């Protein structure tokens, strides 16, 4: 089907009168559209939409529509998180829940021979929290994601670009709703539905987002950028009263000081109700900025002035002070003036004026009262308030710093917004809500990467130093994870694992108060009863605290090991040993791929000094909870030289050595942030690849052997290059020029013009990736100080922000730079004195890039030695892979030597004992009445099912091994990564097989006819015995029995029990360890194995596991479904394993495991 020029709309689901009559909720209408789209063209003719709508209308959960409508070819199922939310929602909750669900569309290239783009509706999902969703509701929007193939083609095909524009001009219809595209961010479009359903309402909607008339002088590029602020992921916090928003100017290198006495006079004259931290004034038609000085900086009544400001004044200096003051009558900020004649004897001449450079770009100040309310809004509790808050307020964005001065009488929630943060003018009466992005957190150790490492070497740090650090890290990683002390092992897995800390922080972010209430979301009542089918998507199969929804196993391997240690497993357990090996290899591989941990480093926000007390080239940092890597002693602050760097690292000045000092004023307020001086010729972050203070983070390194060798590159030796001429403006002009006229005359033309402007960024080439490789190649061969390397580096940095700035590298300049680089490389000789030769005039790829990024072997690569020395990254690869090869050889030899011993080793009886005791009791006919019925009706079917699960798992392992071998062959030829989640899908099928053998189905099992005849079993008595047994065991005990059976049906080293029943296996081990020792186990009050009897129909059982199950069940709330409580895998429980002493007390307990490490 060709794309028609006169096409008016894209129909995903045709309209029908029933949709208006039934008033279907948005999720229900969207699901009907998905089912309709999934049907074939022939099947759609037979679908009765009116019947579907009537069936769907009474339902409260959209996930139920699949069964209600009896869809024959259902698409992907609704995610468990959405399904569970609707299951738990009350009638009053449903309207709010509907407003939080967004529809998603995938747009792909047109089918061959047509111009109609392929669209596929994805399952509805919770919308990411942002200002747009909170204001209008997610149910008014569609989120369209463009495929990677489409994005690539759109950048190079003008014909496809025109077709795509026409496609986006047409609204998308879903039933009685039409959605109009209105905004783009990267490769995602957003479409809006308005109740009026016309172009006029869409025009008003766009204008309401950012008032065009008030911002008519804003450039088109900035308009596009400002619009995306409302869809940035943020958390709501508090509304600021307009009068409590203080608009202040930025500080510059030429900003001077004004005393409080004089500023108070100016404040009174301007009619301000607050004291700003800075004030703007005009002298002789030139603007200047003064900051409020401390009493020890300037005497009362004085002001500092430059010589040019004083000029020929004899008695007074006339200054027109200005400020933005909120006017309640106008409902907006207005500029007010106040003229002051300052006596010459009150002016301090500071000499010749220095060059003006901004020092506070992107950062403002927030009051302690406001910061407290923000923390409370996001449900956070801190011993001390976080130092910085990154967020959005109106059309202002950036980083807000806690007020440095504590005033107990100040109970007002106020915020200062600097001119560099104020991006656009809001409409009159605008509500200023602070939308939080992130806050500062306790600092932890960081790492150095492939851009920073060559920069360090170019500034004097030896290659041997970096290689030695890598060797030490690999050696330490292997050594610390080889310990047989469970306490030390837990510490190594938790405190020294950045990935584990990140996972835990993410889990705590999703459940803010869990740190104070570990039982929250973890009762049986809240245990996620999720129905998982093969249609579900892998990535959604997680509980709210990042556990696998099926096995309740932590997703992190480190967390799994900590859980097993806390449950009672020995560090010598083969499963733990294998997982520890994977952890070691992962850490080593990450380090080899140029993510080398540096213990004496950290990664934190950088902020300008709000007090002005730091001198030039000084900085300050204080930690809330940072410990020395070697001693474990807590470090509160640092003094002395330190390296500061910010990504990207492309120029020698992108890392600077500064001096850390103590500062009593700053120490009272600021933790876990780097406070930078506002003195000097340039701000520290502007030196580091043109950074600013709107949320940039920097890495600090104080490791002695690196800092001592590093030599600063002086900024004067690397002046900024004039590369602006290499770029062209692709979104030129202003709002007034392009949009205002159409807004006033033609609604449809205006909306389509706005759509074209939003889409234009998709049609321009993105050079950042290309110039990243160009810079790596130039630095590899020519060196970091080469003028061409420096030029390419600056172009690369410029390209990173080019889409936001509305510019693009000119095609002819791109070709010229490529030619220059080719010509420069052709002059280079190898170590034998021969000129380097490159095939087909292609630029080579450095060897370290091919090996670290797994590029195709067909790409032209080479290894180059400059001045006879390996490049530092090549040297690191050699050192790393040699160490990894040595480690693997050692463990392979150890495995071969111990294979027979391990294979013949006794299985862990703690896991299999529960089922083994039951089997021994009931397998053969004995004096216990009903024993044969229990064996044939419960235990034997369970054993057969578990053996089948074990066999399926073995098949899955063999199939996965074969697939990986095939994938590796294809990767060698073509490069890249093939199908994701393939292994997970196969594993899930085995887990589903295990989960399908449920407690409820056990009641329904009927033995085969020959078994009934052979053992003379009466079917009526059979059901009585089975029911009595299962009711005595209970769902909790049945799940333990099933896991124990699986453990008995596999060899001692099998992984399958841990893959499909992780929680139950850990619980079995914990109960067994508790029974063997006097240690008070905190997971439950479950008692040890004991004799017990149950007497339904006179059945007597003694010394059986049923007694254990009954005892345990009596101490726990048993749900109506068969799962063990997952407190054992609670995030906070794991985080406090050592603190509670569970592992520590178990150190002296003989748990029956072997003591020889494997």
Automatic annotation (TrEMBL):
Its EC number is 2.7.7.48. It catalyses: RNA(n) + a ribonucleoside 5'-triphosphate = RNA(n+1) + diphosphate. It is an enzyme of class 2 (transferase). GO terms for biological process: siRNA processing. Residues 117-293, 356-826 form the RDRP core domain. It comes from the Eukaryota. GO terms for molecular function: RNA binding; RNA-directed RNA polymerase activity. One of its GO terms (cellular component) is nuclear RNA-directed RNA polymerase complex. Keywords: Nucleotidyltransferase, RNA-binding, RNA-directed RNA polymerase, Transferase. Belongs to the RdRP family. PANTHER family: RNA-DEPENDENT RNA POLYMERASE, RNA-DIRECTED RNA POLYMERASE. This is RNA-dependent RNA polymerase. It comes from Austropuccinia psidii MF-1.
């Amino acid at each position: 089907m060709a794309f028609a020029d006169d096409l008016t709309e894209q129909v995903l689901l045709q309209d029908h009168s029933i949709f208006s009559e039934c008033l279907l909720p948005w999720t229900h209408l969207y699901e009907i559209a998905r089912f309709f789209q999934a049907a074939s063209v022939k099947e759609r003719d037979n679908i009765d939409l009116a019947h579907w709508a009537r069936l769907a209308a009474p339902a409260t959960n959209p996930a139920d529509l699949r069964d209600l409508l009896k869809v024959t070819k259902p698409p992907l199922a609704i995610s468990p998180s959405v399904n569970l939310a609707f299951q738990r929602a009350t009638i009053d909750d449903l309207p709010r829940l509907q407003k939080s669900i967004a529809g998603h569309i995938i747009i792909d290239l047109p089918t061959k021979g047509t111009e109609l783009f392929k669209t596929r509706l994805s399952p509805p999902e919770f919308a990411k929290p942002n200002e747009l969703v909170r204001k209008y509701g997610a149910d008014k929007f569609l989120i369209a994601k463009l495929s990677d193939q489409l994005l690539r083609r759109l950048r190079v095909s003008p014909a496809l670009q025109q077709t795509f524009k026409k496609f986006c001009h047409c609204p998308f219809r879903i039933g009685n709703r039409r959605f109009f595209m209105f905004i783009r961010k990267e490769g995602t479009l957003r479409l809006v539905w308005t109740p009026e359903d016309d172009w006029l309402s869409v025009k008003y909607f766009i204008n309401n987002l950012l008032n065009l008339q008030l911002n008519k002088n804003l450039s088109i590029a900035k308009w596009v950028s400002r619009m995306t602020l409302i869809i940035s992921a943020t958390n709501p916090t508090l509304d600021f009263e307009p009068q409590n928003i203080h608009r202040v100017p930025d500080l510059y290198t030429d900003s001077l000081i004004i005393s409080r006495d004089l500023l108070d006079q100016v404040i009174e004259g301007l009619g301000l109700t607050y004291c700003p931290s800075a004030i703007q004034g005009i002298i002789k038609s030139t603007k200047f900025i003064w900051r409020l000085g401390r009493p020890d900086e300037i005497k009362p009544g004085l002001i500092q002035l430059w010589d040019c400001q004083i000029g020929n004044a004899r008695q007074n200096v006339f200054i027109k002070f200005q400020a933005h003051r909120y006017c309640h009558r106008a409902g907006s900020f207005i500029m007010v003036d106040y003229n002051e004649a300052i006596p010459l004897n009150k002016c301090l001449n500071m000499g010749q004026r220095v060059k003006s450079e901004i020092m506070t770009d992107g950062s403002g100040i927030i009051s302690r009262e406001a910061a407290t309310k923000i923390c409370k809004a996001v449900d956070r509790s801190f011993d001390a308030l976080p130092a910085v808050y990154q967020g959005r307020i109106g059309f202002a964005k950036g980083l807000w710093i806690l007020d440095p001065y504590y005033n107990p009488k100040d109970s007002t929630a106020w915020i200062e917004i600097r001119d560099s943060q104020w991006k656009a003018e809001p409409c009159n009466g605008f509500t200023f809500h602070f939308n939080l992005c992130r806050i500062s957190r306790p600092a932890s150790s960081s790492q150095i990467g492939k851009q920073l490492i060559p920069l360090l070497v170019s500034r004097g740090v030896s290659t041997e130093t970096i290689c030695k650090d890598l060797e030490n890290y690999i050696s330490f990683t292997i050594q610390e994870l080889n310990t047989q002390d469970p306490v030390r092992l837990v510490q190594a897995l938790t405190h020294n694992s950045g990935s584990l800390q990140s996972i835990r922080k993410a889990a705590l972010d999703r459940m803010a108060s869990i740190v104070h209430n570990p039982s929250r979301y973890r009762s049986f009542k809240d245990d996620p009863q999720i129905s998982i089918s093969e249609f579900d998507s892998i990535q959604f199969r997680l509980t709210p605290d990042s556990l696998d929804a099926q096995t309740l196993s932590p997703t992190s391997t480190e967390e799994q090991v900590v859980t097993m240690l806390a449950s009672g497993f020995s560090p010598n357990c083969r499963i733990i040993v294998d997982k520890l090996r994977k952890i070691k290899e992962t850490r080593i591989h990450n380090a080899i791929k140029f993510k080398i941990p540096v213990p004496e480093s950290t990664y934190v926000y950088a902020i300008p000094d709000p007090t002005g007390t730091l001198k030039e080239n000084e900085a300050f940092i204080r930690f809330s909870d940072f410990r020395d890597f070697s001693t474990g002693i807590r470090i509160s602050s640092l003094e002395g030289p330190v390296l500061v760097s910010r990504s990207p690292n492309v120029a020698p000045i992108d890392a600077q050595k500064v001096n850390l000092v103590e500062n009593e004023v700053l120490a009272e307020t600021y933790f876990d942030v780097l406070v930078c001086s506002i003195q000097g010729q340039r701000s520290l972050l502007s030196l580091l690849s043109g950074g600013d203070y709107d949320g940039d983070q920097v890495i600090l390194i104080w490791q002695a052997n690196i800092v001592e060798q590093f030599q600063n590159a002086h900024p004067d030796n690397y002046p900024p290059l004039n590369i602006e001429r290499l770029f062209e403006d692709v979104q030129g002009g202003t709002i007034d020029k392009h949009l205002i006229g159409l807004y006033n005359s033609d609604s449809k033309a205006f909306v389509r013009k706005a759509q074209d402007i939003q889409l234009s960024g998709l049609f321009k080439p993105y050079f950042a990736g290309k110039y990243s490789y160009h810079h790596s190649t130039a630095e590899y061969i020519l060196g970091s100080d080469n003028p061409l390397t420096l030029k390419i580096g600056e172009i690369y940095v410029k390209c990173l922000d080019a889409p936001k700035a509305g510019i693009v590298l000119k095609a002819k300049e791109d070709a010229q730079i490529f030619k220059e680089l080719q010509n420069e490389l052709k002059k280079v000789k190898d170590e034998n004195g021969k000129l380097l030769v490159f095939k087909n005039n292609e630029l080579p790829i450095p060897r370290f890039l091919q090996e670290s990024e797994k590029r195709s072997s067909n790409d032209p690569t080479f290894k180059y030695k400059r001045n006879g020395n390996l490049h530092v990254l090549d040297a690191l690869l050699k050192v790393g892979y040699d160490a990894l090869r040595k480690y693997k050889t050692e463990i392979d030899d150890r495995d071969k030597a111990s294979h027979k011993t391990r294979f013949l080793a006794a299985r862990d009886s703690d896991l299999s004992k529960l089922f083994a005791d039951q089997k021994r009791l009931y397998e053969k006919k004995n004096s216990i009445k009903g024993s044969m019925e229990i064996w044939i009706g419960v235990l034997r079917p369970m054993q057969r099912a578990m053996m089948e699960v074990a066999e399926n798992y073995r098949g899955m392992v063999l199939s996965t091994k074969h697939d990986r071998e095939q994938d590796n062959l294809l990767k060698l030829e073509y490069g890249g990564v093939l199908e994701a989640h393939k292994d997970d899908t196969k594993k899930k099928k085995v887990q589903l097989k295990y989960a399908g053998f449920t407690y409820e189905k056990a009641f329904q099992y009927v033995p085969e006819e020959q078994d009934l005849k052979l053992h003379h079993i009466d079917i009526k008595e059979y059901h009585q015995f089975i029911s009595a047994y299962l009711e005595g065991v209970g769902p909790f005990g049945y799940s333990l029995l099933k896991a124990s059976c699986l453990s008995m049906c596999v060899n001692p080293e099998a992984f399958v029990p841990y893959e499909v029943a992780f929680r139950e296996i850990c619980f079995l081990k914990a109960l067994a360890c508790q029974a063997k020792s006097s240690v008070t186990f905190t997971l439950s009050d479950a008692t040890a194995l004991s004799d017990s009897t149950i007497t339904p129909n006179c059945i007597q059982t003694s010394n059986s596991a049923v007694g254990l199950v009954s005892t345990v069940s009596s101490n726990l709330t048993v749900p109506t479904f068969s799962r063990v409580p997952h407190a054992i895998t609670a995030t906070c429980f794991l985080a406090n394993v050592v603190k509670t002493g569970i592992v520590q007390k178990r150190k002296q307990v003989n748990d029956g495991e072997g003591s020889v490490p494997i």
